[in-house]
Amino acid sequence: MIVTCLFQASQKLSFTFKFSPLVNTGNDDKKVALYLRVIKAIKNSIAQNKLTAGQKLPSSRTLAQQFGVARQTIVNALNELIAQDILYAKEKSGYFVVDKKVVDKKLTNNCHTQSRIVNETLFTDWQFNNVSHNVFSESSDNIQYNFIAGTPDFEHFPFTEFRRHLAHVMNYPDKSDFSYEHAQGQPQLITAIKHYLHCTRNITNRPVFITSGSQEAIFMISRLLLNKGDKVAVSQLGYQHAWSAFKENGATLIKIKNDQQNLDIGDLASKLKQQKIKLLYLTPDNHYPTTQSLSTKQREQIVQLAREHNVIIIEDDYDHEYHFTSQITPPMASHDPQQLIIYLSTFSKILYPGARIGFISAPALVFKQLIKLRQTMSHKNESMTQRALALWMTEGGFSRHILRSTKRYQSRRLFTDTVLKHHQKQSPQLSIHYTLAKSGLSIWLKLNVDCALLAETALKQGILIQDESCFSDVKISKSRHLRLGFSRLSEKEQHQGIDKLMALANDQINT
Ligand SMILES: Cc1ncc(COP(=O)(O)O)c(C=O)c1O
Known about the structure:
The protein has 17 helices and 14 strands. By secondary structure, it is of the alpha/beta class. Strand 7 (279-282), helix 12 and strand 8 form a beta-alpha-beta unit.
């Protein structure tokens, strides 16, 4: 309709200016396809009134000469402008500009698609399900000293070595990498993990299911086991990403005390008596965030309680690789005759979190359900990196990397200990207290200052650190703890960062 009206008005108008060759339109556009650059030039001419409503464009041959491009490129551009209602074509006559008002609207819509979408949503009653995610998320902008715990030092990851395995996978593709096969994960990686679990953790005879990190594992298990109103026991301070997954799947959290220990077993026993708890989420080794590990006896007591009250245990062994003494307590899943324990672990601390590879080792009946859920969610996870990891594990590079990293982190751990001891002596007013954990990549520090405020002031000075309140979903009135990670910074940086942090803590006391 619009096209016909305009068509009548357009007949007498002639074309008065020439387009410049595209080579003259500036460097920015060079990577953009030629026909898109032609479209842009024509739209600009319309926006600047060099081309007006009803005006006839030169023939495609002339346009091709003016722009310095092939005629087919012009034809493609003109067809696109017609599709966008910016031009219209008249048989045997040529191409014309449509009404200015319509053009303006079209141009605006094209430039600001985003805002158009936002406006359209106003007419739609979008009803999202609330996602329960309210977790500290790390930003590394302007951060000089990153004390966030738990991420490996990427500087020392053997990328060249790992790249060889990735290249091998690409050079010798396996047909199953290209298909929907193997919902449970890449078979060679599953075999390598089973072997690794057997040798390092005494976990045997349990199926392994590969996930996109432990986070996906926690979410999938929650999806399979939890219903609205189910209760999940977690330690009072803990891993909020896991909590979000539980809440997202309908659960209510029951907080168990974890004062000086990993978990207060007396408190767990009394909470279990008071109410029906379906799941218990634990980090028995190197408690997140307080770093203490449960002894074998404590683990047995917890399993005993879980058996009596028919509770399923999620054992999140997120940091198993880095042990600094020879006394390693085997995971609870290494002795699970009642089949109560779902064991999780991750490669995020060995490779890098972006690899998104973790796994579940669970009783066979859980495994079957996981496969069904995986097929519903995404068929399978990407498998080529999984295969490269399997090759790295079987070839031995993986173990060598863990050995080297453990040495490096041990030296950083001891160095941090020395720096902290120095500050303990220098600044007794800060009452610095900590117990060096036997495993893991962080130190849980107690200080006689408001640690939430300290973390806030430190951030302004480029120091990123988490205080106690980052590990709780309820307000903590007196935050007295900091979690000081030592894996990411060199000894020199660690030293400087801690000195600055302690200077800020002293400032807080003195003002
Ligand atoms: C307690 C805990 N569980 C699991 C993970 C690992 O998460 P993912 O494997 O999803 O990277 C972390 C990472 O920091 C963690 O702290």
